[in-house]
Write a structure and sequence with these properties.
Protein-Tyrosine Phosphatase, Chain A, 2 domains, 8-stranded mixed beta sheet, 17 strands, globular
């Protein structure tokens, strides 16, 4: 009997969580081998980096669909539903197709579980489901965002034709290392022999690591600031106007419907990736304009309410939070701006709060409903050392914390941030996003 969607969710969540890493591709390779290596049925564009992967994946997806090609996109984590992780032609799998994907993989997964020291993890299972679903559809291009790192990430069972490495900073240090250089070594593993590497602008150490890896495996390289760039950028209402210097030509009058300089750089990387995928050919400028003007990236400085303005952002590390703060200060005139913040215990909380402090008049410390959530009171203790006691409020329930933030903001604005899970749960509480903006 076919399982229900709820039963599939339960079965997947009963596996090792995606935050637990056993550095090996042995299990995912065994599983894909049993399934006939579906990941080899289509070319793959793979992305890694500390921040920006999901937004850039969406940009690449939109650009490739403008070319008339059918896409499969795997991203993680999800905001509201597991189904968001596996998209075909820009749309999440339906519950029925998600169940079908699970059912296609489950029997093979049992064989691998029975023969391995450790069973397949949640993440390995969902990656296998995505690659199998893309082969079954079939898609013409697969777009895969790594979950953590690169070399040992389950998505790396595919040999990507194009490898995109976005800016590297410290995150997941317990698994990837304590410095950007250490982390760059792990992330450089997505650059495979004879692939095409698209490198976002990096600090010296990580850049050297990535270039060395590309030379070792014979990959071609294009670098932001050398081979492609954001030539011009003008913030505007609802986004920003860009001129992007690609590797093949310059694209002007491009309206990007996302906020922040970091998203402009993501857009330049996306253009370079698709040019590389096409063998260095230029794109139709009108296709580029249409792809970016219609772009949505839920939970990335997403406006979900007005009066007061409520923004959702999934920033969860200092690097990402600095980019968020710069974008808010550039694109919104919200005074006062109140933060509703819920974080995970395994994150660099002090650095995240330091990045937020200049932008916020007050902070409401809260928590999401997962086991990894830092208790609101513990977060508030840390926040008081950065914001001062008078600016810190403790409201453990997220729904109550949002209400408190709205009350404190009055006619200003509220920024809900600190983790992908916090942003996703807030999005559900507030009605599911931009379609509800009044």
């Amino acid at each position: 009997m076919k399982p229900t969607y709820a039963e599939v969710e339960h079965a997947l969540l009963g596996r090792w969580p995606e935050t637990k890493l056993e550095p090996s591709l042995t299990r995912i390779r065994a599983l894909c081998d049993l399934m006939g290596d579906p990941q080899r049925s289509y070319p793959v564009i793979q992305l890694t980096g500390t921040n920006g992967k999901t937004s850039t994946s969406r940009m690449i997806d939109n650009l490739i669909r403008e070319l008339g090609l059918r896409t499969g996109r795997f991203t993680s984590p999800h905001l509201e539903s597991m189904r968001e992780r596996i998209c075909v032609d820009g749309e999440p799998l339906s519950e029925e197709l998600f169940v079908d994907a699970f059912s296609d993989v489950a029997a093979y997964a049992q064989v691998v579980d029975d023969s391995s020291e450790h069973p397949l993890s949640f993440f390995e299972m969902v990656v296998a489901m995505a690659y199998a679903a893309f082969a079954d559809t079939p898609v013409e291009v697969g777009i895969a965002e790594v979950g953590m790192g690169g070399t040992w990430d389950a998505t790396s069972v595919a040999d990507a034709q194009v490898a995109v490495v976005l800016p590297i900073d410290v995150d997941h240090s317990q698994y990837l290392g304590d410095s950007p250089v250490d982390i760059a070594v792990e992330k450089s593993g997505i650059i495979k022999p004879r692939s095409h590497a698209v490198l976002a602008e990096q600090e010296g150490g990580p850049a050297d690591v990535l270039l060395q890896r590309a030379a070792e495996v014979g990959a071609t390289v294009v670098r932001e600031g050398v081979d492609f760039a954001v030539v011009e950028r003008t913030p505007g209402i609802g986004g920003q106007m860009l001129t992007i210097g690609g590797t093949a030509r310059t694209y002007d009058d491009v309206f990007l419907s996302l906020y922040g300089e970091h998203q402009a750089h993501n857009a330049a990387c996306a253009v370079a990736a698709v040019e590389g995928f096409l063998g260095g050919k230029e794109l139709d400028p009108q296709f580029v304009r249409e792809a970016f003007s219609s772009l949505e990236s839920p939970g990335r400085l997403e406006v979900v309410r007005r009066s007061p303005t409520i923004l959702l952002d999934a920033a969860h590390n200092p690097h990402g939070m600095r980019a968020t703060v710069e974008a808010v200060q550039e694109s919104f005139t919200l005074s006062p701006l109140v933060g509703v913040v819920g974080v995970m215990t395994d994150k660099e909380v002090d650095g995240l709060l330091d990045a937020l402090e200049p932008a916020l008049s007050q902070i409401v410390c809260t928590q999401n409903t997962t086991d990894r959530a830092m208790p609101a009171a513990e977060l508030a203790d840390i926040a008081e050392g950065i914001f001062g006691q008078d600016r810190v409020h403790t409201v453990p329930r997220l729904d109550d914390a949002i209400d408190r933030g709205v009350e404190l903001a009055d006619v200003g604005g509220v920024l809900i941030t600190g983790s992908v899970v916090t942003a996703g749960q807030a999005r559900i509480l507030l009605g599911g996003g931009s379609e509800n903006v009044a």
